Amino acid sequence: MRITIEMQGPLQRYNKGGQPRAELDLEDGLTVHDLLVSLGMDMDAPWNAALNGTLARPSDKVSDGALLLVFPPIEGG
Question: Average per-residue pLDDT in the chain?
Answer without folding.
Answer: 94
